Each structure stands twice: as structure tokens, then as C-alpha cells.
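During the second half of the funding period, the structural biology subgroup turned its attention to how the target accommodates small molecules. The most pressing case was magnesium ion, which had performed well in the primary screen but for which no bound structure existed. We therefore specified the complex as follows and requested a full 3D prediction, including the ligand pose.
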Amino acid sequence: MFEHKPRPEWTAAEVFLTDSVVHPDPALHRALRTAADAGMPAIEVAPNAGKLLQLLVQMAGARNVLEIGTLAGFSTIWMARGLPADGSLVSCEFLPAHAQVARENVDSAGLGPKVEIRVGPALETLAELAAEGRAPFDFIFIDADKQNNSNYLDWALRLGRPGTTVVLDNAVWEGAITDAGMDPVNAPGIIDALTMLGGHPRFDATVIQTVGSKGWDGFALARII
Ligand code: DHB
Ligand code: MG
């Protein structure tokens, strides 16, 4: 795993913002605790980013959400909470053990009926979702293996519609986007994705840099044209 390096003051500010504004509830704390207990890496989005995802889902009026990269379901819970009563979310997870932890976390949060977690390589699951007619998705969050970022963006174009919101996590990666040698495994996939978001005629995008407990990173926010 690539080492992210938060500065103590960034983390302190994030804790203050989490406590004063974001207020994660026991179901979200449970998701973090069960992930740690299962030995999973603490690479979920920060609480303030999770709340941003929830608000974006609500603001987009999304009813059909796709997540690529479930982990323990922390971001899944945030986004599912932004759905209307008849909304649904499909999340793709490579590892069965992670999907099991996420399933329990989502169920504990009372969101079970809204959330489907599919296990396996996401590129296979995405093809299945297309074949099953589950598209179009209104909101797509990409937070999985960085090598496949541009493949996932390709799928977002196929499974989305004009106006679909696409959020891509880890868009700055401690600045490795301008020095791929810092992380030859992951940085090229992130750079490819940024090139696609900036150059493809069907994406209109921006990227926000962030600092906090997850180090120096950022997210891309795009709209399908
Ligand atoms: C890693 C992956 C992530 O999606 C993230 O937000 C932070 C770190 C990782 O693989 O190291
Ligand atoms: Mg991420």
C-alpha cells in the first residue's frame, strides 16, 4: 500500500470538523471498528468526505447509485443515506471477506434493503450490470484499484446517462500525479483517469485537492455530458 502522510494539524482539524459538523453516528463508527477488527486497511474516505458523498447523492436527486470499491461499507452507508425511500445502490467488491464485513455494516445501519453488494472483479460485475439492464445509474463513485481507473470511467460512460454525477477518489495521491515515480504502481492509473476526465468529450470535470487524516489527496467530480 502507498504511504499517505497526514500532518498532525490536518488530522486535528478534521477531528474538529467531524465532531462539530459531520457527526458520524454509531452505525458509521461500527463500520470503522469492524474493518479494523477484520484487519482491513483504513483506506475508507474520511467522515467529511463521506458526508459530502451523501449530500451530493441528495443534491443530484439520485435514485440509482453505483459504487466501485466497497471495502467495509463506510462510504456505502453515507451514500445510501442520501437515497430516497425507493432508491437503491449497487456496490462492487473484489474480496469476499470485505464484502461480508460490509454486508453486516450496511444491514446494521438499517440500509440492507436498499444496498446490493456484488463480489468479484468489478470489470466483470459492471458487464453483468449492463447485461441485466441495471443502468442508467444517476451517481457513480469510483474508489477501487487505481490501475483500472480509466476502465471504470469507460464503464461509467456506458452505465451512466447525460447528467450522471461521477466522483473519483484519490485524484492527487500525495502529489504523485506530477511525479509518477513516487508510486509507479498506482500513479499511472490516476494520471490516465485525470487525462480522460479532462479530454473526453463526454466528461465535464474538476478536481479538488484535500488534506486531512488521509494525507494529501483529492477527488475528481465530473458530470457526464
Ligand atoms: C488507498 C486506496 C484508497 O482508495 C484510498 O482512499 C487511500 C489509500 C491505498 O490503496 O493505499
Ligand atoms: Mg479511496
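Two results from this model are relevant to the next phase. Residues 206 and 221 are 6 Å apart (CA to CA). The domain at 8-224 is CATH 3.40.50.150 (Rossmann fold).
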